[in-house]
Design goal:
CATH superfamily: Winged helix-like DNA-binding domain superfamily/Winged helix DNA-binding domain
Number of domains: 1
Largest sheet: 4 strands, mixed
CATH topology: Arc Repressor Mutant, subunit A
Order of helices and strands: EEHEEHHH
């Protein structure tokens, strides 16, 4: 807790800002170790805090949920349309998040290949 008595947010060098209170919770929304390690090359594109959008992952320095990016892309919109509609999100942030999930999928594919061998 900080001096005002609210949960403290911690910005990790590993690429995500997480509220300290989220680690003491039994919620299934806690970030996974794999997710955090794969974010290690990113410069904090995502914030997770119970004080912002009820703990839903948002783009750092915005209130825009990361889920909105994927909803846009799934419905056929381009990345540029997303950035136009959510100007508080930097294009670099969105690209970092997309790259992260590409890496996560590649990680699981490699792990599955090694497990099958």
């Amino acid at each position: 807790m900080n001096e005002e008595g609210s949960p403290r947010e911690i910005s990790y060098m590993i690429g995500v800002t997480v509220s300290a209170s989220s680690f003491h919770s039994t919620s299934h929304q806690q970030p996974s170790i794999i997710l955090l390690s794969l974010l290690s090359k990113m410069s904090n594109p995502v914030t997770i805090s119970p004080n912002i959008q009820s703990g839903e992952p948002v783009f750092t320095n915005t209130r825009v949920p990361v889920k909105n990016l994927f909803d846009y892309l799934k419905s056929g919109h381009s990345l540029n349309e997303f950035i136009e509609d959510f100007p508080s999100v930097k294009k670099e942030q969105a690209i970092q998040v997309i790259d992260h999930f590409e890496n996560l999928l590649n990680f699981h594919a490699i792990a599955n290949e090694k497990g099958a061998a």
